Amino acid sequence: MDVILKNEIEKYIENHREEMLNVYRDVINLQGRSNELENLDKVVERFKKEFEAAGVKCERLPQTDKTQDYLVGIWGEENPGQPILFSGHYDTIIPTGAYGEGDPFRIDGENVKGPGVLDMKGGIVIALYVIKALASIGYKERPIKICFVSDEESCHEFNPNAGQVIMDAAKGCLCAFNMETGRMNNDLCIGRSARVEFNVKVTGVSVHAGNDFARGRNAIAEMAHKILDLEALTDLSKGSTINCGVINGGTVANAIPGSCELVVDMRFLKQDEMLKTIEAAKAICEKTYIEGTTTECSYRIGMPAFETINGVMEFWTLCKDVSEAYGYGTPGKIVLGGVSDASHITLAGVPAICSFGVRGDFNHTLKEYAVLESLYERTKLIAAVCLHFNELKY
Q1: In what order do the strands lie in the sheet with 144-149?
Q2: How many structural domains are present in the chain?
């Protein structure tokens, strides 16, 4: 373990705490939900300037007219060895103005609050200062790449090419840090579920329930049969869950409902289980229980699975060993149900660890907060890990 360089990194970060906090504050106050294109333009441009000032050769990749540009870049392109990648997103789930008038960023004791402090602008600030800290000690071992997207919180609903952009950035890399929300107990994420939104619509025959009952075809009753069949596709032993979460049907109690719609949340730890279950769900929709009803279904794969491919556990072990050796604690490991773009990185065959951003809680709510000290702790840890990639055994 290179204690001298580790100490130099720590010294750099300690000497730049106020600067890091100011950047953190500024990018949080630049609010921007996934669909707020004008606001997101300001966010991505600010990050671009920050990374360029750190010596990163940056490019804004134009996307669709409903999504903002992606920010990609490379630092130390001339360095030997496989690159490492920092990935994440700069949009937030919270719309502009949700925190009221004025700038939303605030310090509350040991925590900071505001849209994206945790999910996940804090993680991007960490990536920025890892590069700066490594540059300060003359790091020359390998290039560092970045890829930050504008529409992760919408699961890239309006940009079918998003996954390919991330995979292209990841190809050829040794490994990737996905700078999503850090866990309060310091666990690092080694896998995440895929998410599929499955939609079902049943059409029946609506008539008066008292005067013409026999001629009716109850769409809700037909859907009830299908709900039981769909829920039965859950297999917890494989990490596959099916949740029939939203249902709408009927108009008044004295009329046979002529239509019913269902939205199903499906999550899978394995891609092959996802594909198999989608086919099973389609077969359920093709089956008719009440003659005279018809069923349509559609689905959208929000994110593929972030699988614990070969190399992920070796990468996590290196992070744990470095953290313990340098006195930063012992991070655990966890597989999460929520989705992230780490999935696209592992689809490219590159080991990734997710949730390496600032620690905190209450994602996707106005109570979202991050532990300020973790901004500096994680920067030190990741920079230290970068000194030891030659020890990876894959």
Answers
A1: 57-61, 70-75, 144-149, 84-89, 175-178, 352-353
A2: 2
And the tokens for 381?
């840890």
Q: Which residue do the tokens 């290179």 mark?
A: 2
**Strands 369-371 vs 259-268: parallel, antiparallel or unpaired:** unpaired
User: What are the DSSP E strand ranges found in the chain?
Assistant: 57-61, 70-75, 84-89, 106-108, 111-113, 144-149, 175-178, 188-192, 194-203, 241-249, 259-268, 294-303, 333-336, 352-353, 360-361, 369-371
Q: What is the pLDDT of residue 393?
A: 82
Q: Of the residues 303, 333, 368, which one is the last residue of a structural domain? A: 303
CATH number of the domain at 263, please.
3.30.70.360
Residue-averaged pLDDT of the chain? 96
Looking at the structure, tell me whether residues 7 and 106 fall in a common domain.
yes
What is the enclosing helix (H) or strand (E) of 320?
helix 312-325
> 125-139, pLDDT tens digit by residue?
999 999 999 999 999
Share of residues in the chain with pLDDT > 90 (%): 95
Indicate if the pLDDT at residue 1 is higher than 70: no
Place of tokens 């769409």: 219
One-letter amino acid of 63:
Q
- Mapped onto helix, strand or coil, the DSSP state of residue 29 is helix
Distance CA 380, CA 359 (A): 14
- Of 276, 303, 330, the residue at which a domain comes to its end is 303
